[in-house]
Amino acid sequence: MAFDGVVTRALAQELHRLVGGRISKIHQPHHSDIIMQIRAQGENVKLLLSANPTYPRIHQTTEEFTNPLEAPMFCMLLRKHCEGGVIESIQQVGMERIIHIDVRTRDELGDTAVRRVIMEVMGKHSNIILVDPATGMILDSAMHVTAAISQYRQVVPGRPYVSPPSQDKRDLLSVSKAEFISLLDWNGGRLDKQIVDSYTGVSPLLAKEILYRAGLATQETVWEAFAEIRQEILLHQYSPTVVTTKDKSYFHVVELTHLPAETVTPFPNVHQCLQAFYEGKALRDTVKQRAHDLIRFVTTERNKNEKKIEKLLQTLEEAKDAEQFRLYGEMITANMHQIKRGDKELVTVNWYDEAGATLSIPLDPLKTPSENLQAYYKRYNKAKNSIQVVNEQIEQAKTEILYLDGLLGQLEHASLTEAEEIREELVEQGYVRNRKKRGMRKKKDTRPELEKYVSTDGTEILVGKNNKQNEYLTNKLASPHETWLHTKDIPGSHVVIRARQFSDRTLLEAANLAAYFSRAQQGSQVPVDYTLVKHVKKPNGSKPGFCIYEQQRTLYVTPDEALIRQLKTNTPTTHS
């Protein structure tokens, strides 16, 4: 990925259409994210500003966000200074990854005032800052940077706003051919790195594209490739694209011809390109941050059960001596007349050995023959009973691992709400303590919100994203003659096709959903079982989400993320 100065320039150009728009609402769904709802040119637009340290960005979005019940302080301040205000200008600072949004509003006295929202896309140092441009003072920011963190630049209320440190790079839009060539040192290491180090707004990805287009790099060909891309940028002739290679995905507004692409997806504008690239990634990152303790706890519990099985298998190995103790007891019983107190061993023929081999049985010289006999039978019964108990404990630990694996898979795909449902489940199952204060009213049980998809021919498909949703979908909502799907012997989501009759294509698409929302998401030819809902049962006392089923058939699918996105946007046409 490369949210560089060139992408920022293309984005700022598209954002100009919001100038003159009025900010109607401001939300802060996460401490690093701000959503502005803007009424501009007769339509409502959502503008996302995110200082997420892993996925910082700014773009229009159609995503839905869950807002906290109480707005954070920074959100309240933004509402006070910017809600109801009109956007006067949206400007990029040079070729930097910084955008200034100036908002004309009214202060407490009713006088006209201007407030500036500054979006700095700076990796882990990204920030959203509210400034009074008249005084240059910071009113507040999403991330506070104190003197203990940075001596050069503090970002806290009441301090003057200071731009991020300049790297003394040149402007790629104004450099001359002679100057460009003179800055290249053919003996000074990698040319792409030199270009990145010399020009503001050029990312390593874009520099590699320049050199790829140059072919056999000479001063002339490198300049021509540089000038060609620069001309596109000057004329705002962009090609927003997401390129997926075998290893990862990339995006840019300049065509990326140097990548070994498996898929190339063009977009009509930068906003749609950025949303497609980041959608899901940032949510999963946010969920991981919020549910970090959950993921760590479930992983630890899973590892404990694996170690428990190792120890139990060792105990089982030791308990295999049970049959030997029984044999010793039988041999002592048969030879009781030959044994006396003080004997250290009994040597006798082993009746169970076809070859008639002799058997040497250790005896305790301090015990009578009868006491030695009882000691061996006692050890036999103890070992025999322990085998049964240990086998039961091994099965319990395996069931536990299967359950915990399911939770880890669910957390991989969970929204913030779904992660909280998983936390509630762990509380109910007694794994973790309730974080809520005593005496607080328990929230009324509400119906889980299920993920809805629509097949290509218009049939609705529902997906459970955690055990609460799975149980509600399978045991309460689905009708007996609807079709239920689940990955075979792999933790995953319950999927239901909400129709008695449907096409083979719908079945394959539902199977794709079951495979995608499972631990086998990255696999190929994933086995998916399907049967009627009436053949699915939850055994008494079983773990949440667990079920048994019969009369199933199996088909094999390879999860397809593009298909999943398409099924999400389809419109239902049948309700049979």
- Biggest sheet record: 6 strands, antiparallel
What is the total tally of β strands? 24
**Relative helix content:** 25-40%
Question: Strand pairing plus helix content: what structural class?
Answer: alpha+beta
Pick out the low-confidence regions.
none
Instruction: Give the overall form.
Output: elongated
Report mean pLDDT, rounded to a whole number: 89
Order of adjacent strands in the largest pleated sheet: 17-18-20-19-21-24
Radius of gyration: 34 Å
Distance between the termini: 44 Å
Count of alpha and pi helical runs: 15
Tell me what portion of residues adopts beta-strand conformation.
15-25%
Commentary on this structure:
The chain has 576 residues and is α+β, with helices and mostly antiparallel strands. Helix content is 37%, strand content 22%. The strands form 7 sheets. It has a 6-stranded antiparallel β-sheet with strand order 17-18-20-19-21-24, with helices on both faces. The longest helix is centred in the C-terminal third of the chain and has 45 residues, at 369-413. The chain is elongated, with a radius of gyration of 34 Å. The chain starts with a helix and ends in a 7-residue tail after the last helix.
What keywords describe this structure?
six-stranded antiparallel β-sheet; five-stranded antiparallel β-sheet; single chain; 576 residues; 37% helix
